[in-house]
């Protein structure tokens, strides 16, 4: 590494500077030029994927906004029917995840992601015309099939473009763009329901029709806006030159030695499951998404039934906690990258949740309880990109990374099922058992991070003493890799 790469503006941190060296085949860029390339990647990749994730979140969770706007009444979603409708999305969403990270490598992100986005948008449009409980449940299953491919493909794609200590902020920005923008769907839904009666459709039906059309248009646009993997030979629409892409591959290789993808072998792909930490990352995803999906499906209902706000106010009040969460999660991502922390950030997020949960559930003043929602939404949603960065930083090898991404999202889908069920109709309006369930999974995440940290410490010490290499050299990994706590 030459001395020039260690100098320059504070805009690029020391970790990023360390990656600006070049191989024999790639001329070195100046720090200013390198910074411009990274920012170009951020603008093109993060913004495109972020807005596609926004419509993904809106389309899987807008059922809650439609429910309080008349869907539950019109389709007779009594008893546990609403919970069944919300969780119907997840079984197919979980089952079809593992194949997605293989398909996105074979087909390329532009074809794979744009197609599935357009497809679930068409199904979402169809939800505006359902007549029965059975129909809406069936369409939720189909949406789960198509959406299964998006999130694991997106996080896997992001992980191939950035070094380990750039991912925290990038995952944070990706999730901020998606989750914060989607949070304003409550305000959008409030405006849409005023189309009540237009074209002979109820206001809640227009929520699905309009948002489905937006998803279809964005899916089509994604074919031109998305970029491919940096090591791919496919056309990238002049996003980067061949030299610039080679530089990206080189710096990722300098960081973790796995920028280039070996030939797919099923045994290689599945052998990643032999690492118990992959499943630990999945359990963290389960705990995080149990809370985030519970909030996505039930926060408008809790505001309406528990805190006493009317339908329009409840829909509008969903947005501010998510806006605050966006600021909080970016700050956590920045701290994690700057100080090379991963597990501690997860613990901080869960502690914030554990403060917000009892405030939301037990304080007598509705305004203070609403403040608790801010803390709960911030901590839970911040933990999604934080836990993604945790596993991405500590995993090496493209197919293991692909398997881990699918496993993470699969367990996240199981958390979605749990989140659909924790707030039961018979528990309203306090929903205390659901609050206790959220407290339990937050504590579980803290315990898992503690166990992983101990194992990382032991393995790193062994590697420091020369007793073992943390990864097998025959898989093409760099010696000297250390786990990040």
From TrEMBL:
Disulfide bond keyword on record: no
Spans traversing the lipid bilayer: 45-72, 84-104, 111-130, 136-159, 171-194, 206-226, 278-303, 315-336, 343-362, 368-390, 402-422, 434-458
GO MF annotation list: transmembrane transporter activity
InterPro entries according to UniProt: MFS, MFS_dom, MFS_trans_sf
Domain Major facilitator superfamily (MFS) profile: 45-462
Gene Ontology cellular-component terms listed: membrane
Endoplasmic reticulum in keyword set: no
Membrane topology, as annotated: Multi-pass membrane protein
Pfam families, sorted: MFS_1 (PF07690)
Subcellular location: Membrane
Entry keyword set: Membrane, Transmembrane, Transmembrane helix, Transport
Major localization class: membrane
Name of the molecule in the record: Major facilitator superfamily (MFS) profile domain-containing protein
Lineage, uppermost ranks: Eukaryota, Fungi, Dikarya, Ascomycota, Pezizomycotina
